[in-house]
Amino acid sequence: MTAVDERGVAEFFEGFEPPDGLKVELLRGEIVMMASPDLVQNLIVLLTERQIPLDRWYPLQTQDVDLVDEASEPVPDLVVVARDVLPGSGRLLPCQLITMVVEVVSKTSVARDYGVKRSIYAAGNVPAYLIVDPIMAQCVLLTKPEGKGEDADYRAQHIAKFGEPLPLDVLGVELDTSEFGTFPGVKPHRYP
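Above: the chain sequence. Below: its structure as tokens.
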């Protein structure tokens, strides 16, 4: 897609009002619409959010993220920002302020969460990207972002199975995954 096309899509996206019950994101110039999250996903987000100390961090749900030099406005399941850097208002949260993003994999978001969003968050230099996968019953923590555009990636990866504690060093906490649920009867995928 050309820069002109991406700007046009971004301008359209700014004024777009999705139908009720749909989550909408702009990912590298492509508008992606999804059904509302499954109960399993919502509970994982809730359990993760409750383990983040509010005296230092704000865990925000459904916050639009502004990524510099990207035709993207992802809406992670959870965004973690230090309390002292959070702006007073605004729809778009600048990626430079974000310490960690969390995406909970759905039955239809596997490729986006492990692929394009991994690259987008790394390009935005987000220090930590946590993929919580109720299909594979695992958490994938990505850190040390490097690169630009579609070539951006994370240099470090730590995988923890549900039930194992996951150190989130960027937040100074250890995530308890023992209560994370899974999707029954969903075919495993081939990502990490």
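The chain has a mean pLDDT of 87.
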